[in-house]
Amino acid sequence: MTQGRRGGGGTKRGKTSHADIEIIRDPLWDNIRLDRPALLALDTPTVQRLRAAYGTIPDPTDNDGVVPTLSQTHGELIHAVRGDHLDTIGHFGDTSANPPHVDWLVTGTGFDRARFDALWTAVVDYVAIGGR
Fold first, then answer.
1. 8 Å CB contact between 51 and 43
2. What is the rounded distance in angstroms from the CA atom of residue 122 to the CA atom of residue 18?
3. 49 and 78 in contact (C-beta within 8 Å)?
4. Rounded CA separation 118/82 (Å)
5. CA angle 75-81-84, nearest 5°?
6. CA nearest neighbour of 65 among 79, 43, 40, 83
7. pLDDT at 52
8. Digitized pLDDT (tens) for each residue of the chain, 132 residues in all
């Protein structure tokens, strides 16, 4: 799963958490209030990993420059990174590589060799243990 940048019109979104209600500020639906049972229902392993990786649940306009981030959550989430679509296949800026890597979609995510290696190590590990 990748998330390069927020889509849409530059409106500042925020999220406020309370003990019983969480308010997700969404540019399309304005405020969505989730009560405790709804939060618990949404607290899946995938949602937990998204929160750990991104600090929040991606909104419908988040994307990796090509694919909406939330469209990438089907099945088991193996790894989540901040990067664009082409970063994940090796097209990220790295002038120290020989030959130098070229960043085709410049999103400012800071995707680098360490993130690339962590992503593909997670994929290889998943396949090696018989993941689907």
1. no
2. 34
3. no
4. 12
5. 100
6. 83
7. 85
8. 556 555 443 334 444 344 455 555 555 555 556 666 666 666 788 888 888 888 888 888 888 888 888 888 878 889 999 988 888 888 888 888 888 777 777 777 888 889 999 999 999 999 999 876
pTM of the model: 0.64
**Cβ-proximal residues to 11 (8 Å cutoff; 6+ apart), any chain:** 27
3-class secondary structure, 77: coil
Domain boundaries, the chain: 2-128
Strands (E), the chain: 2-3, 15-17, 21-26, 30-35, 81-82
Q: What is the phi/psi pair of residue 32, to 5°? A: -110, 120
- Contact present, 78 and 126 (Cβ < 8 Å): yes
Looking at residue 19, its amino acid is A
Polymer length in residues for the chain: 132
